[in-house]
Amino acid sequence: MSLVIFSHGRCLSYDVGHDHPEAASRIHAVQDQLLSSGLEFVVQQRDASPATREQLCLAHCPAYVDHVFDAVPDTGHIWLDDDTQANAKSLNAALYSAGSGINAVDAVMQQQDTQAFCLIRPPGHHAEYKAAKGFCMFNNIAIAAAYAMQQYQLQRVLIVDFDVHHGNGTEDIFQQEPRVKFFSSFQHPFYPYTDPVSHSPSIVKMPLAAGTTGVLYQQRFTQEWLPLMHEFQPELVLVSAGFDAHMEDDMGQMKLTELDYLWLGQQLKQIADQHCSGRLVSMLEGGYEHSPLARSVVAYLKGQL
Ligand SMILES: [Zn+2]
């Protein structure tokens, strides 16, 4: 097997405000931990390429994509929603974030038993078909899924989202898409305050109370999700990998630890191995407290080795 990490310097070259939790130092912390853990010498690191307008439009309304390009100024910034500040550099980074998912899909589809992790920012899972939301401009994982279906004619794409926040954008984009099965676990009630009940066979939700521990999380994942994931028989596994459900991350109030992320890496790798020759692509979403984020990413990747 081989594990490939896609990233790009542009993803570290912007700032959305002093003391903002979604900062470039998140990526630096993960890079440092990859080095000190020794994983740096096991994985392949590759530069991502930027997504094209056409690729963004695989998952977004063309008028929304045009609006973002037209509205973001050359200097200064605008607000695309109450939480999502954008400037020329962050728009550029968003293109590389989305592009990394396309690179990663190509890598795992074209080479046997390959897993990929996209170490990128801004995140994507809150961005809806025609709206930015929650630090997210374009929905990276949805663009990757739509690209995989178009380019490789896939009929069954599994998306798993274990960020502490519900992946409302991914649900919005794929709620009527029979080729996608989207599983999202999230603290509830909590931002973005979406409906905790699924109204589509493509969407599976696991709302979790604040204070949920790793023991309970693993129990529910095993009992409620694993049978459905195997039944779906995915041809590709995509993961919105957010690490803000860690007990040391103040963004949420859940109680997972890096051992739970190690376990998640093992479970998702097993599903990919059993059904689709190990094709597994994970993309960074949230995770804001540097040390637990970095430890959790490394544990999650070790789970795939
Ligand atoms: Zn989050």
UniProtKB/TrEMBL annotation:
Gene3D superfamilies reported in the protein's UniProt record: Histone deacetylase domain
Residue ranges annotated for the Histone deacetylase domain, each copy included: 20-302
GO molecular function terms noted in the UniProt entry: histone deacetylase activity
One Pfam family recorded for the sequence: Hist_deacetyl
Record GO biological process: epigenetic regulation of gene expression
SUPFAM superfamilies: Arginase/deacetylase
Organism superkingdom: Bacteria
InterPro entries for this protein: HDACs, His_deacetylse_dom, His_deacetylse_dom_sf, Ureohydrolase_dom_sf
Stated family: Belongs to the histone deacetylase family.
Name this polypeptide is given: Histone deacetylase family protein
